[in-house]
Amino acid sequence: MVKQIKLLLTVLIIITFGLNNSKAQVSSYEELQAAYLYNFAKYIQWPKEVLSETFVIAVYGKNIPKGISTVLNGKAVRGQHIELKTIDSVENFVDCQILFIPENRIRNLPELYPVLRDRHILLVSENDHIEKGAIISFIMKDNHLQFKLHEKALSEVGLTASAGLLRLAILL
Questions:
Q1: Burial of 37 (0-12, 13-18, 19+ CB in 10 A)
Q2: Phi, psi (5° rounding) for residue 101?
Q3: What are the CA-CA distances from residue 106 to residues 9, 14, 19, 101, 127 (Å)?
Q4: Taking the domains of the chain in order of start, what are their residue ranges?
Q5: What is the pLDDT of residues 86-124, one digit of tens each?
Q6: What letter would DSSP give residue 74?
Q7: Sorted alphabetically, which InterPro entries does this protein's record hold (predicted)?
Q8: What is the CATH class of 2-171?
Q9: Are 93 and 106 in contact (CB under 8 A)?
Q10: Which among 33, 87, 126, 169 is least buried, having the fewest CB atoms inside 10 angstroms?
């Protein structure tokens, strides 16, 4: 059943974002991450009081990875336009619903803890950094991009994942 759901998610990602040309292509790692971020936005519920006209996905760093920008620019979720922003320091923190921390910035995660406290922010990292505080962490398993989800941490920030998303996750 889980394999069928994963296959369905892969098909949905391809349908949602399409292929760049008529030839089948292997999506880049960043594009797959973007597709997952988009689906996290769709299948996780935020409290209504923190939602606005835009759904902000922030990247901790100076630049938004090209694959993420390419896939998410112009997209919307639940009627909200997705806006991509960068956060290059704690002093320049912006309100967001999802904060993505690339591998090269994970060492800076502890400095964000005071800013993240009492906010409804989904913290997503690369390379299995759940133990450092991420709620969702991308991992490579059997040469496929998958994700771990820390259910308790998700509920502690006031967010709820759909049953379908929970079935796709490696739960902790």
A1: buried
A2: -115, 110
A3: 27, 29, 31, 6, 10
A4: 2-171
A5: 999 888 898 999 999 999 998 888 888 888 888 999 999
A6: T
A7: YfiR/HmsC-like
A8: alpha beta
A9: no
A10: 169
